[in-house]
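Researcher: Here's the sequence for the chain we discussed earlier.
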Amino acid sequence: MRRFGQTWLYSPRDVLAVLECEHRQKLEHAAAHGLVQRPTKGADATLELVKSHGMRLEHAVLEQLTGTLDVVTIDTPGHDDIALLTAAEATQAAMDAGVPVIYQAVLLVDGFLGYADFLLGVDIATGELLRDEHGRQLL
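Model: Thanks. This is the structure I predict for it:
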């Protein structure tokens, strides 16, 4: 959870905190309000290994998709309010334009903040646009 202008934004992590442990949710809330500090995390070799493999896979998928489809990359130069709002607006503009693949999407809707490595508006096997029952492209 984080402050965004005069309101609060919630992430999937915040929702999990509520579902997993009421005490954790209270600690997250207190940390977001500056009442307590989050503990510092030391180096974790296993986590770093998982992260490096995940990044390699992500870049391989991006390379594959870029080779066959139009891909728009959303640039997020920071995590301040202006950068998040700009990235969310760029994501929405790409969705409205019917871009087949959006990489590093920022979703900001009704007090919720989310990130997506890939938003796909096409069937990657066929390259055909995904559409709803009214013919609108799905993402």
